[in-house]
Design brief:
Helix content is about 70%, strand content about 5%. With about 160 residues, it is mainly alpha-helical. A two-stranded antiparallel sheet has the order 1-2. Strand 1 and strand 2 form a beta hairpin.
């Protein structure tokens, strides 16, 4: 396979893996987890060093917006990270899900147009210089990490198997 074709195949595989890990795994798990919690439970902070599920959802929305929509997509970065953690709710699960789905719709448009050349391009995000590939890897890892925290909270609170 020639270098250009190989580079394009690799970039396509990276995009497909992002979509699998985020759109097919993490977002459905997040939505399923929210469906098991009451509005009150979504906003419980287990202790002063922990975040509520609601805070984590807002944090994921902020992170994905900043890294993908602004960092890769070039949109203006309007993130106010501290507000993601200061919010006390209640914001209903339906509103949180709508916010996440709206952002993910935009993310899909940005991610689908990445080429091999794009992936090695450096951009500024959160005060750092990162390649777009590095940003994609960060978002997958970060998103999965927090979805795992949310899943653990649901299992702990509800004593259920989430079956994923």
């Amino acid at each position: 396979m020639e270098k250009e074709a190989l580079a394009q195949a690799i970039s396509q595989n990276i995009v497909e893996e992002f979509k699998r890990r985020i759109f097919s795994e993490s977002v459905p798990r997040l939505i399923k987890s929210l469906g098991h919690l009451t509005e009150e439970e979504i906003w419980i902070k287990p202790n002063s060093e922990s975040n509520s599920v609601g805070n984590l959802v807002l944090h994921l929305c902020g992170n994905v917006s900043q890294y993908i929509l602004s960092g890769i997509g070039g949109l203006e970065d309007k993130r106010e990270r501290s507000k993601e953690f200061k919010e006390k709710g209640p914001i209903p699960a339906t509103v949180l899900i709508e916010k996440m789905e709206g952002i993910m719709s935009q993310v899909s448009k940005v991610i689908n147009h990445l080429s091999a050349e794009d992936l090695v391009q450096e951009v500024g995000v959160q005060g750092f210089r990162e390649t777009k590939l590095s940003i994609i890897i960060h978002v997958i890892e970060h998103f999965s990490y927090h979805v795992g925290q949310i899943s653990y909270f649901v299992k702990l609170k509800k004593e259920i198997d989430l079956n994923y």
